[in-house]
Amino acid sequence: MPELRKPYLLYLGDSTHPTDAKTACGLRDWCPDDVIGEWSLPQATVSVGLPRLSPADAAARGAGSLVIGIASVGGRVPDSWLPDLDAAIASGLDIVSGMHTRLTSFPSLLAAAQRHGVRLMDVRHSDATFPAGTGNKRTGMRVATVGTDCALGKKYTALSLTNALRARGAKATFRATGQTGIMIAGQGIAIDAVVADFIAGAAELLSPDNAPDHWDVIEGQGSLFHPAYAGVTLGLLHGSQPDCIVLCHDPSRLTIEYRPNHPIPPLADAVAQYLTAARVTNRNVRLAGVSINSSTLSDEEWRTYAECVSTELGVPVCDPMRGGLDAIAASVLGQGH
Amino acid sequence: MPELRKPYLLYLGDSTHPTDAKTACGLRDWCPDDVIGEWSLPQATVSVGLPRLSPADAAARGAGSLVIGIASVGGRVPDSWLPDLDAAIASGLDIVSGMHTRLTSFPSLLAAAQRHGVRLMDVRHSDATFPAGTGNKRTGMRVATVGTDCALGKKYTALSLTNALRARGAKATFRATGQTGIMIAGQGIAIDAVVADFIAGAAELLSPDNAPDHWDVIEGQGSLFHPAYAGVTLGLLHGSQPDCIVLCHDPSRLTIEYRPNHPIPPLADAVAQYLTAARVTNRNVRLAGVSINSSTLSDEEWRTYAECVSTELGVPVCDPMRGGLDAIAASVLGQGH
Question: Are B178 and B165 in contact (CB under 8 A)?
């Protein structure tokens, strides 16, 4: 996937539900230096608190892309957005979208982009072809976030851990594998959009050879225990060849989300299965920590829970929203906390 | 994937190396009633022993498709084959290919197919879209072949086991997941060509609800221990929800083929990992048998080896080429041998 052009103008369309703006909030929070403003239709009521800039104004201030920062019904670009997207294209901005419907499926946008020499970047999709995985060892160090389920903090943990590693003076790069992560990083591979035969091969390309003391922090996808997505999870894990894994978990979730007949295994089992799987491409892989989404726990419950899990598994247990991931960063680096 | 039109005329191109005709031999051996002849260029020296029929003659005798039955250098259709393919199209035959290069990438073939109302079937590729896996239990019984590596007999075992189950009076259907299997069955899904997110979903469609006493015998792909293809293997396993697995192994192979740094685990470990993975979608999954490619062993070595593995794992150990799979079929059906 070619690199995205930053900085971004965040587009909020006609949104009236603050929860629809998850992508825009993620970009504002995780790459604040890369977002210079927001724009929306007059009927929109949602804002993410950035300066309001028209596409032309944003382009004049150096913006590289308009990023669709909200979810729409059915993942489709509604016709009401097209004039704004046209204006952005006419101002020389690339359009970046993580929606299911491709921007390139709109002939009018495609023609306009062609005319103005800008790119329509559908980061959820992948037209690139990848080689099969080799399994060959690469230089540099890698840590991957893995989960007991989907949607419980693997991206958030990878981003927080990247910052925590840097705060300890380590060289660290966040490697994005999903659409929001790709927008934040400006690059990456939407791993679940790759043809099945090439998952591991694509993951190998995502974290190429690097300096021996450099850490790639790889955003995990899906879960080994998810009946739909475990293939993506395993291929990504194998291609990543992680030296460390960080297990992400939400203790309030007892079964896979939307799959009530599929229980989440005990944490020790989950760790054992992830390590067994990861050893196929890195025999020295170890668990560096557990990252918990503890939003449903009181302070006292959280302290007790974290201590209990930490004693059982012998690694730091942190919540990035509750004290940060420094202890896990220390564990990744093999340093005392 | 729409059903292929049988019977087949097997095409051998300009082949002069008998080993190139693996696909044609597989079709001749596994669906003999569905192949009515072979055809090749004058310079070809390879034959699979079928009556020689021109495309026009084959069409006159009721053939539905010309199947490219040989491998070519680079997986590409050479220009020298095009006149024969054109003649087949003009005779009203579909063309079926398992090659990397798509038939549909030849504008002349595409135009001819359009003109004559026939189909170009690239069974290695998949343009179909699939839903995500649900994990919901389906009616009917399923057995999946799984392997310690690629290319050691998972298709052969699934086909043999289908016959062995039928010989015991059971209802059984072979479910194809790779190009040769699809040609043999006339239908199936090239699972490694599916977009990663939908591997399990495609596998769910491959073996739909069926009669309670019906067995789907699902052709496995790749291996959990292969650094490139394990994601395909796991997604296929999860979507298949097998009640039984049959492990396929070649004792002469100590490391993954072409990946000398990737050891094949001990059989007991391999079985444990496959069963753990399969339990995500079927808690009652069990090992029904081990299918061995024993071509490198003497009769005495084979007897000793089979007894040793059978004692260790507590299931029948067979070689489909050396006595057949009846003992494994009995184990699948829960019958005494």
Answer: no
pLDDT tens-place values along chain B, 337 residues long: 689 999 999 999 999 998 899 999 999 999 999 999 999 999 999 999 999 999 999 999 999 999 999 987 777 889 999 999 999 999 999 999 999 889 999 999 999 999 999 999 999 988 788 999 999 999 999 999 999 999 999 999 999 999 999 999 999 999 999 999 999 999 999 999 999 999 999 999 999 999 999 999 999 999 999 999 999 999 999 999 999 999 999 999 999 999 999 999 999 999 999 999 999 999 999 999 999 999 999 999 999 999 999 999 999 999 999 999 999 999 999 997 6
CATH assignment at residue B72 = 3.40.50.720
Task: Using alpha carbons, select from A267, A269, A198, A210 the residue that is nearest to residue A238.
Answer: A198
Find the chain A residues whose C-beta atoms sit closer than 8 A to any C-beta of B: 132-137, 191-197, 199-201, 224-236, 238-239, 256, 259, 261-262, 273, 276-277, 280-281
Structure tokens given for B202: 């495609």
CA dihedral A294, A296, A298, A302 (to 10 degrees): -30
DSSP letter string over B91-121? TT-EEEE--SS-GGG-HHHHHHHHHHT--EE
In A, which residues are within 8 Å of B256 by CB distance? Answer: 135
Q: Same structural domain for residues A116 and A174?
A: no
Which residue in the set A224, A234, A280 is minimally distant from B262, CB to CB? Answer: A280
ipTM of the shown complex: 0.93
Co-location of B298 and B208 in the same domain:
yes
Strands A317-318 and B141-147: unpaired
Question: Are residues B99 and B235 both part of a single domain?
Answer: no
CB-based contact B186:B3 (threshold 8 Å)? yes
How many CB atoms sit inside 10 A of residue B2's CB?
A: 9
Q: Has residue A3 been placed in a domain?
A: no
B284 secondary structure, DSSP code: T
Q: Which residue has the tokens 């044609």?
A: B24
- CB contact under 8 Å between A134 and B236, yes or no, is no
Give the range of the structural domain holding residue B305, as residue numbers without chain letter: 141-332
Indicate if B111 and B191 belong to the same structural domain.
no
Q: Tell me if A303 is assigned to some domain.
A: yes
A173 and A106 housed in the same domain: no
Helix (H) or strand (E) holding B317: strand B317-318
Closest CA to B199 of B225, B237, B173: B237
Residue A127 within a domain:
no
DSSP bridge partners of A142: A216
Instruction: State whether A96 and A163 are in the same domain.
Output: no
With 90 as the cut, is the pLDDT of residue A337 above it? Answer: no
Both A249 and A109 in one domain: the answer is: no
Q: Is A298 helix (H, G, I), strand (E, B) or coil?
A: coil
